[in-house]
Specification:
It is a single chain. The chain is an alpha/beta fold. The protein has nine helices and five strands. Strands 3-2-1-4-5 form a five-stranded parallel beta sheet, sandwiched between helices. Helix 4 (about 70-80) packs across helix 5 (about 95-105). The model is unreliable at about 190-205 and about 215-219 (pLDDT under 50).
Length: about 220
Amino acid sequence: MKRQHILVIRFSALGDVAMVVPVVYALAVQYPDVRITVLSRPYARTFFEDLAPNVSFMEADVKGEYHGLRGLNSLYRRLVAKQFTHVADLHNVLRSEYLRMRFNMGRFRVEHIDKHRKMRRKLVSKGHKKQKVQLPTSFQNYFEVFRELGFPIDNPSFTSIFPPEGGNLNLLPAAIGHKRTWEQWIGIAPFAAHEGKVYPPRLMEQVIFELIQKYPTRS
């Protein structure tokens, strides 16, 4: 019997991709015999390469090598060669929609995220059209995609990227350089409220590096 292999598609910015980490981890732990490959931009490799034994990462430079229709067709051929059995589109934008269409034509099992755009528009509408309804969280939307694919996730667990004793901040200068006089570091602890997974400090180094590069501040 062919081993099940899930392709998870999520491009987008650093923070959006980071939110996929606890979901993929929960999926990998609950279904250890299922292979999972995350397709994202090159910078996201550090999030997933050491996540779990059955998780791998595949990078795609959608603004370079795989730019435009020709590039997406080339990317699709590369993906088909991996012999996926299921496709989870966690982005639902033009690029992923096109890939999803190709997979659907190839009779793959495909599901995509529902961003509840109609509900969002009603939430910000004026007058009697306004409907104040609690929207599902991003995590709930991700879980729903895998449930539709036949992989419901029960009791997801996740912990801080730091070990219980804390992270070694002495490693930061080597990764991001020494702080200059007009910069200040931003302290963050993503996913700290979830239990189950401990991440290596180098993941936090990467996140802080991206933030400082993008949002330098003057003291």
